[in-house]
């Protein structure tokens, strides 16, 4: 150790032994001890707890998200910031566990009695402790706590002082002390978690941005990751951050060779310039309307959430940007733009879901304005449509030049060329803006004379129990139309149903879909009892479907009869089958039918029972045919258990009889007896 480090070590050990934070140890394990330089030139003592942390069960208690903390500052005008003294050292290590955190120095082996920096569970444990002692005040949303930083806020000084007194009382009760030099009281501008907070505005800390313009170009992956680590902390202030940083993030991949080119230089310079501009974010007000601006390029999507400030001007509440994965980059333009909307709604779901005002969405892809009216959706679009249905939104088309926040940076020329013209992925024929007026009126007229509709309306009017299996709550009335579970009820009118089938099956835009697809399309808008059966019968009778679609049931080849031997004697070749379940007669309920196949075509009928087995069949043949005509050379039969059994087949083999079993489920093979 250097002389300076030896002095620092003596000071560290003396002070912490005096405070009782450490004590001499006889632990069988120990972690290394070393110093790192502080910005002011002094030395910071550190323990290397990496080996201990690898074997430690992690505490999953979550640290608060900085974005969520910032959201709580709406309407705050005055602030007080407190900083705890000896943050982690306020938590004692459980008795019996101190030896696990022992560290070795040139002065001997020591073990801490309180939490030290470097233990993997220190942040979660300390945050849990702070949340516990301040749980009542936190519930009232009077303060923000992140580790040892406390921010008290209010819209007036009197309330701020009252909250500050409550916080100080809690600290006193728990023997927690503050650093006076780092505490700030009753100000309207405060630095907290790297942000400058003013009434209704959040800025990046200019101290942290002072050297951004002088940041040199990185020459190694480590240097690049250092720059991107800084950028990621403030990414919420930068529109389309992921799209801009995409060329830089590519270089940080494991197997990506280092290649610094003009594309990456432009991205690096753009990020530095954007950070230097220090954009301000408006703290959202959930009771005011929101505007969501979205856009997508070939490599990323971006979104900006806007709200009107006190002057009535739109001001951003936040920016999000996320790069597309390899599969998402292959999406068509329509799907990439739609994914950008999904990401924006997901990021600010806690604001937009259940908002009292309709959220206006601005995008530069015109067809998205009609997305919810699309007649045909892919499975992916159907899932997205289900997600969008949770929100009260209105999608409005705006040219890219009118939404620069989300569009301009995502369409820079150095991120790949894109076609200037809009691609219409879903043509106009695939959209329906409203129900056809004539069809609307026909349905309404038919419902007035429909027995089921009148019964439902009467039950709902008189508030009497439903006469059917389904609940009356499933039925509603909208625009004088009766709806079943939000689907228009179609009365028992064949012409009306066929008109709807023509709309969803016969039009060129649909191309005669099958039964399942047609049913799914209709069920998005309409319902009637027996809908699936009606659709099936309609499609089975559709001439175009029968003529043009692939025949999955091809015609079987013509039947070829088994050739007869003209020189055969009677009953040398026979076919046998059973007629079962006849009316009971003399205790018999079945007949064994024996037909002379080659010669006379004569028939022998032998009474028997349905339960007859292979031996019984052979015995019956022996009694009624063998005595008169002898053994046959060939027996033709179906695959009944009497003939397919091992006993019958062995008997035929021993007697030199050829057993010819018919093809399964093809009785034509044994046509004479059938």
Automatic annotation (TrEMBL):
| Alphabetized SUPFAM superfamilies for the sequence | DNA/RNA polymerases (SSF56672), Ribonuclease H-like (SSF53098)
Q: Give the top-rank taxon of the lineage listed in the UniProt record for this protein.
A: Eukaryota
One GO biological process from the UniProt record?
Answer: DNA integration
Q: Would you tell me the Gene Ontology cellular component terms?
A: nucleus
Return the InterPro entries for the record.
DNA/RNA_pol_sf, Integrase_cat-core, Integrase_H2C2, Retrovirus_Pol_polyprotein, Rev_trsase/Diguanyl_cyclase, RNaseH-like_sf, RNaseH_sf, RT_dom
The protein's GO terms of the molecular function aspect are: endonuclease activity; hydrolase activity; RNA binding; RNA-directed DNA polymerase activity
Q: Which Pfam families match?
A: Integrase_H2C2, RT_RNaseH, rve, RVT_1
Domain (Integrase catalytic) ranges = 566-674
Q: Which residues form the Reverse transcriptase domain?
A: 17-197
Q: What is this protein called?
A: Reverse transcriptase
Recite the UniProt keywords alphabetically. Answer: Endonuclease, Hydrolase, Nuclease, Nucleotidyltransferase, RNA-binding, RNA-directed DNA polymerase, Transferase
- Does the record's keyword annotation contain Lipoprotein? no
């Amino acid at each position: 150790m250097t002389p300076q480090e030896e002095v620092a070590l003596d000071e560290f050990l003396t002070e912490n032994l005096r405070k009782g934070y450490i004590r001499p140890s006889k632990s069988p394990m120990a972690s290394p001890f070393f110093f790192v330089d502080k910005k002011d030139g002094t030395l910071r003592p550190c323990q290397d707890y990496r080996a201990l942390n690898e074997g430690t069960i992690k505490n999953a208690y979550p640290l608060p998200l900085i974005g969520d903390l910032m959201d709580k500052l709406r309407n705050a005008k005055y602030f007080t910031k407190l900083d705890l003294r000896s943050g982690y050292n306020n938590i004692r290590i459980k008795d019996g566990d101190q030896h696990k955190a022992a560290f070795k120095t040139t002065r001997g082996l020591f073990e801490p009695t309180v939490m030290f920096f470097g233990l993997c569970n220190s942040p979660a444990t300390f945050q849990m402790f702070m949340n516990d002692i301040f749980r009542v005040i936190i519930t009232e949303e009077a303060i923000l706590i992140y580790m040892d930083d406390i921010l008290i806020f209010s819209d007036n000084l009197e309330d701020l002082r009252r909250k500050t007194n409550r916080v100080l009382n809690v600290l006193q009760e728990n023997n927690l002390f503050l650093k006076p030099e780092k505490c700030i009281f009753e100000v309207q501008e405060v630095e907290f978690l790297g942000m400058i907070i003013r009434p209704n505005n959040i800025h990046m800390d200019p101290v942290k941005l002072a050297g951004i313009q002088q940041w040199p170009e990185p020459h190694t992956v480590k240097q690049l990751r250092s720059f991107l680590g800084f950028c990621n902390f403030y990414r919420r202030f930068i529109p389309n951050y992921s799209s801009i940083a995409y060329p830089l993030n590519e270089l940080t991949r494991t197997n990506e060779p280092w290649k610094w080119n003009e594309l990456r230089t432009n991205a690096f310079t753009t990020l530095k310039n954007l950070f230097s501009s220090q954009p301000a974010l408006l703290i959202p007000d959930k009771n005011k309307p929101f505007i969501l601006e979205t856009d997508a390029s070939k490599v990323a999507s971006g979104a900006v959430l806007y709200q009107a400030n006190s002057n009535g001007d739109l001001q951003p509440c936040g920016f999000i940007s996320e790069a597309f994965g390899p599969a998402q980059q292959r999406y068509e333009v329509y799907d990439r733009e739609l994914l950008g909307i999904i990401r924006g709604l997901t990021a600010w779901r806690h604001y937009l879901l259940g908002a009292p005002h309709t959220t206006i969405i601005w995008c530069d892809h015109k067809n998205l304005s009609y997305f919810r009216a699309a007649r045909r959706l892919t499975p992916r679009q159907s899932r997205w449509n289900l997600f969008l249905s949770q929100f009260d939104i209105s999608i409005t088309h705006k040219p890219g030049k009118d939404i620069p926040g989300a569009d301009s940076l995502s369409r820079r020329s150095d991120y790949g060329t894109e076609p200037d013209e809009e691609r219409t992925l879903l043509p106009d024929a695939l959209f329906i803006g409203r129900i056809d007026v004539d069809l609307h009126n026909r349905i309404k007229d038919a419902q007035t004379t429909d027995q089921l509709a009148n019964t439902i309306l009467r039950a709902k009017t008189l508030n009497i129990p439903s006469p059917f299996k389904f609940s009356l709550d499933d039925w509603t009335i909208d625009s004088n139309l009766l709806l079943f579970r939000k689907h228009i009820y179609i009365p028992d009118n064949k012409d009306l149903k066929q008109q709807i089938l023509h709309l969803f099956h016969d039009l060129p835009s649909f191309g005669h879909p099958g039964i399942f697809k047609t049913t799914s399309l209709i069920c998005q808008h309409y319902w009637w009892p027996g809908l699936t059966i009606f659709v099936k019968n309609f499609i089975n009778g559709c001439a175009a479907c029968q003529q043009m679609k692939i025949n999955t049931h091809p015609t079987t080849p013509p039947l070829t009869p088994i050739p007869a031997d003209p020189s055969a004697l009677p009953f040398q070749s026979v076919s046998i089958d059973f007629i079962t379940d006849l009316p009971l007669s003399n205790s018999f309920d079945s007949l064994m039918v024996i037909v002379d196949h080659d010669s006379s075509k004569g028939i022998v009928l032998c009474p028997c029972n349905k339960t007859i087995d292979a031996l019984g069949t052979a015995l019956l043949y022996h009694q009624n045919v063998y005595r008169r005509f002898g053994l046959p050379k060939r027996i033709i039969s179906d695959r009944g258990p009497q003939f397919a059994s091992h006993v019958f087949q062995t008997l035929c083999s021993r007697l030199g009889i050829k057993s010819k079993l018919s093809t399964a489920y093809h009785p034509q093979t044994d046509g004479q007896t059938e």
